Known about the structure:
Chain A has 282 residues and is mainly alpha-helical.
Amino acid sequence: MFSRAYKAAVTLPPLLWVTVFLLMPYLLMFCYSFWSVSASQTIEHSWNLDNYGQLLRVNVYWQTLLRSMWIAARVTLFSLLLGYPLAYFLSFYAGRKKDLLYQLVIIPLWVSYLVRAYAWKTILGSDGVLNTLLQYVHLTKHPLEFLLYSPFAVVLTLTHIYTPFAFLPIYAALEHIPRNLVEASHDLGATPGQTFWKVIFPLSIPGVVAGATFAFVLSLGDFLAPLLLGGPSGIMISNIVVSLFGAAYNWPLGAAISFCMLLLVVGLLFFSEKLEKKWSFS
Amino acid sequence: MTTSEIAVTMTAAADTVGREPLLSIRNVAKSFGKNAVLRDISLDVAEGEFLTILGESGSGKTTLLRIIAGFETATAGEVWMGEERLDRQPPYRRRVNTVFQHYALFPHLTVEQNVAYGLRVAKRPEAEIASRVREALDKVKMSAHAKSKPSKISGGQQQRIALARALVNRPRLLLLDEPLSALDANLRRQMQVELKSLQREVGISFIFVTHDQEEAMVMSDRIALLRSGELEQVATPREIYGRPATAYAAQFIGHTNLLKAEVRGGAVRCAPLTWHAALPDGPALFSLRPENIHLAAGNTAAAGSVRIRGRVRHQAFHGATELIRVECGDGLVLVVRTPGSGGALNDVELEFSPSDAVLVRESPERI
């Protein structure tokens, strides 16, 4: 159909792009993770597994990784709990307002991440909107300290930021369900509740898996929300990587942690793809 | 289609005369916004009857079916099933099941689970579900595919599963929305026969929606002909074919010659034809089926029959019969169905009995 030259001309640029800007940096990072830093702050190209050993030995690293996963898991859960009903309502009950509401869900994505994170800072701070309100109505005497600079603030902000990412694939999956299946279910005597659990939900699982993957992977690697709102207790693994590549000047260790995260994410994507395949029937 | 090709049983419809109807549609109307889709539909369906709602696309037949099933709400009118007002109930409370046009099988469930669905949501005991599902699958000859997913079986097989899934619930009324339209011609004819005998066997009332007049003739006890949201005629296939009430009914079901005539003093004039009929003066419209016009034999016409000479303009061979178009002068063209003539025809003399010319109402344009 197409000539060889044409095919090459079309495939080569993206291939080059991926090689130069993705594969090579990864390869470089992979190499770095086996090198070390000398006392004089130079990188020594001597191959060893010390960095990976340190990762397992030093508590702060693997504990932060676990905490990051725990934060990401909560963000995922809350994003699904918010995103699913929203998608369900929009897809099945919004009627003519569907398109408008859909845009409203998407609009926050146009706003800079930083603005949204700072907005939460204004809301959650000790003299922020929320604390002022709580004191004004005499629910508390003193500002609540746990609201800001805590894992709570990080989970809240990340949930706000990543809910649209969970929403989108769920919405797409729900829109994909032929409406005559819903009618068939009602026709066979199933109540709306039974229809939801026996037909609609099972058929939306691929969307839920994709949405959960987005929310988890994106929030696992997030470093701005913990930086701005996390405080010492809300630090995540990416903050450690940032400081290792920055002030601490230990690129090899940073590379080793990054590589572990990459493995984790790739494994997760692989697993979620399997799950999606298992639950798709078109 | 000749009358002999129309295999119809009128007995079932005749049986039901005087009995309480199973389903009663009373003055149902439906509009979407300003667009009136159904206007003042009243129709009864008897117990065990095979009723076909026949109409072109856009005639409102599917909307009527969806009102009975509960997927649409009528703008006006009522639907009753015995003593029970149906149109106030959600679809899942109605003892009515539907076979959908594109089957609507649940893709994530096996064939067996699809069939069991209705019984399972009704929380029947598992042992009962198992035996009824087995029975239903046997009835549609699909037991071998019980564990398959719907995507792994053919269209005709999916059709049977959709049927089994509905029938296993033992509804009092089964609605079928063009269930055969997605099948190829051969399979379609085979399924028509199967569906009809299955309906006889289970004795459930069927309301069958189709746009295919031949399918309607072959399968139905009665046909309700719908046109632009109004019922044109409700009758047995024989009646509707032999005694069409309107010009539209005559043309939609089978071929016909529509004769625009003028009655004066008991004489019907449709130049160049004239015959006698006891009708009031004024314009009249007649339907004359092609097979009721014969090539005249012998020199004298049979008592009371009408003869006319004409020139054959077109001759089409259809196997058992031939359709010929005959120009009779004064702009009158008659389509005639004859048994194979064995050769080309030129000048012919035609003969028909005035009793075969059925007076029909005009079918005015509707929007």
